[in-house]
Specification:
Length: about 180
């Protein structure tokens, strides 16, 4: 082979180093992808709804979204004896619609709840087990809190004292119905 056609020592080193460069590039890309996936998993979740109070059975949870009126939110219900009797010692998160936000005025007449004068929910007098159900809070919704409800007649939500206002510390995030 003529000397002009012989590969230079530098070209040989570049070809020999190519697999190592590809390996490092692949590892870097994988690290970035894993970091993005981990961040996504920390801010999102797929929740399964077992309650008949919402018509959806799958809800996509966005932990970084701020709830607004009309949003579906998922939250940890406040502990109470009534909640334990109906849902066990470690109840799953609840999903409800935000019908009242901070500054709104909640009133109640004859067990019907109103937000700024508009009827949003009617409270039952007793639970499915026959227990008396205390009415939820009325007045101005505090900053960082929500009045939540569903259209379901048996929904267990802010119209009852055992749930009350749902405040930011209990909110897991905003849900988007999937199925």
């Amino acid at each position: 082979m003529p000397a002009a056609d012989a590969p230079s020592p530098r070209a040989g080193r570049l070809r020999a180093g190519w697999p190592r460069l590809a390996l490092w590039a692949g590892l870097g890309t994988a690290t970035l992808a894993l970091g993005a996936t981990t961040n996504f998993a920390q801010t999102h979740a797929l929740m399964i709804n077992a309650s008949p109070s919402l018509p959806y059975w799958a809800i996509w949870l966005d932990r970084s979204a701020m709830p607004a009126r009309g949003d579906l939110i998922l939250f940890d219900p406040p502990p109470s004896a009534l909640l334990t009797r109906h849902f066990g010692a470690a109840p799953q998160p609840f999903g409800k619609r935000v019908v009242g936000i901070a500054g709104d005025v909640v009133t109640e007449k004859d067990r019907t709840f109103f937000i700024n004068g508009k009827a949003v929910a009617k409270a039952k007098p007793v639970s499915r087990f026959g227990e008396p159900l205390a009415l939820g809070p009325t007045g101005i919704i505090p900053r960082g809190c929500y009045f939540v409800a569903t259209g379901h007649q048996d929904g267990f939500d802010s119209r009852y004292g055992a749930i009350g206002w749902i405040c930011a510390r209990s909110v897991l995030g905003v849900g988007r119905p999937v199925l």
